[in-house]
Structures are given as C-alpha cells and as structure tokens.
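TL;DR need structure tokens for one chain.
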Amino acid sequence: MLKALRYPGPVPPGVTLPAEFGSISCEQGEWAWSWTGPVPDLPIPSFGPLAADPVGEWGLDHVVLGTSDVEATVAALVAAGGSDRRRGETVRGQVAAFVLAGTLVEVIGSGDGTRLVGIAFETDHPLDEVAAAWRAEGVELTDPHPAVQPGRSIMSVRGLPVAVMTRR
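>> reply
TL;DR here they are.
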C-alpha cells in the first residue's frame, strides 16, 4: 500500500513537512512514492520509509496518476495490493479509474507514459480560511467551489498540481 508521497508544491498552512496525513506521509520534492509491501511496476521513482508526525486537521484525499494506458496502470496498482474501485467515470473529459491503495489513486488517461500528476489534501478547516492563509504567503489559488462529489468543496493552487478539499 502507498505509505509516503513526495510532491512539488506548497505546504498546507500550519503544517511542517514531513507530516503524516492519515496513513500517508508527505514531504516536498520531485514526484516519488514509497510503498509497504509490493511496489507497483510503474515508472515512478521510489524512496525509502519516511518518519513523520501526524497532522490531525489534515488528510490526504487522493493522488492523481496520468497515464497513456489506464488498464495497464490499474492492473499494476491492483497487483501491488490495490482495490479497483472503478465507476466508469470521466474526469475533465478523460477516462478515469479509481484504485484504493492506502489512499485513493485517481488514474487519468492522458499524455505519454505514466507519472504522478497531482495531490489533493482534505481539511477540517474552512476552505476560505485556508485560502486566506496561503494567499498571505503569496500562494495563488482558485476560489473554493463545489467539487465533483456532492456536498464537498475544492480549491486548487494555480500552476501547481495541488488541491485542497473539504473532508468526506
């Protein structure tokens, strides 16, 4: 199962990285991941275990994999212990699949090859407060707006593959 993730993007307000968001630890850097047990046979850099302190008001909602072969990518995630949770959806016009592998992995049909392309945190804090804190640090964001999932809101960091959502 996915245990840790390295991502290029801003740190959630009030959080010091590395931090544990539920069962997944995160740190800043070039895209890479760490797994307990089998690692999916995908061309994504891996790194060793990451020691981190838990952050209670924040979680990791999902990570996004872009791939030119959705079926092969889902098969690799399932072979590493993930659970295929497909719902026959599209996301922004692209074929999408969802695999539970420690956290939800959204697999999007796009581009050449397979790579990590996004991370979505979830928080107990009102998104307007999170947006104000990030904007005070110079981070440019979209305004919070309704998410695909009913009853949830989302905002995205402009120019970076980072989003923040209200909790499930």
